[in-house]
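anyone seen this seq b4? input:
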Amino acid sequence: MHLGDNILDLIHRSIGLAGEPAATRVVVAMSGGVDSSVTAGLLKHAGYDVVGITLQLYDHGQAVQRKQACCAGQDIHDARRVAAMLDMPHYVLDFESRFRTAVIENFADSYLAGETPIPCVTCNQTVKFADLLGRARDLGAAALATGHYIKSAARADGSGHRDLLTPADMNRDQSYFLFATTQEQVDYLRFPLGALTKQEARQLAADMGLTIADKPDSQDICFVPEGGYARVIERLRPDAAAPGDIVHLDGRVLGQHSGIVNFTIGQRRGLGIGEGSPLYVVALDAPARKVIVGPHEALLRRYIELRDVNWLGPMDQDGRIEDMAVYVKIRSTRPAVPARIAQRGDSVIVTLDDGDFGVSPGQACVIYQQPGADSRVFGGGFIVKTSVDDDLTPEHSTSGSNEGLAHLPPVA
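predicted toks r here
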């Protein structure tokens, strides 16, 4: 087939590499889905030396019959078929052990600690954009391309670095799951679908004759069958089902539960207690195995403390994060809301202009320059503490070093 000149120009601009495409190797992370397959097809038709790599991340036997999954079973076969159709080399790498240690075990431990983890972020942070990126370099690739809906572009300051930007199709925006991508990784990664809509990607798959053009998108967490995360955790950590009390904020014990892993901050349904007015989970006391409930207004939080901050945005002359107005997402499905951020001692504190309800430790808080498409992604971190009042990290002084802020680059 012949791709239009506008599409080819879009691909070359998204890759942004000097030299002839035929002499430029690009590795594509192929999950077996539509997006990564289209990415491989576009690069191949644009004339690049394309190599596909698929990671087998969890048990093939259990996953082979599952629909709407990724990185196992049928998806690996689909990736192989697409690579064969495109006449490009393709490798399957067994990363099951690494994935279990870095992602699944971490997922279970986080829930046991009363957090609500995001394993997709951990997977990108450890397996896909660390281990896979290293394999791409070993193959002599100038870049690693993925099918994520996000953009990257050369920074205007001439530093040679690239910025992460939100995509054209904000309904498919995946920047929330990529905030932990380090500057070194951003400089090596490419995202050819960032300027396309999902509908356009599917049409391109059909135009290229790819058999996966109508394949459903992957859903939920890849290693959690039918969303049953509690069963996965209980299998990994048998003590996860340890019973405890459901306690009202006023101190009354309202009932018992069969494991805090069955509850998340903001949950209303399935509490198993009877009370005149609606109650919500407002906190989880993991050491005491207590689920603490209260009225909806008790969920309000205005201040958020972040850990493991990855920062891609501007810094002051002392190499610290500037105190500035930004926009933040505290859920992948919510729009970015106005906030302020400040580095306070060794912590980063986010102040939500209007507050929010159901902010949960373990979730990510991703920081943007502005709302909407083509917004620079400044980075983000994991929520460790929340408060309705400005009483976070009182032990930290307002001055100090950058020690404790993971991945913060030195001032240029």
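The domain at 242-294 is CATH 2.30.30.280 (SH3 type barrels.). The CA atoms of residues 22 and 211 lie 26 Å apart. kinda curious what u guys think
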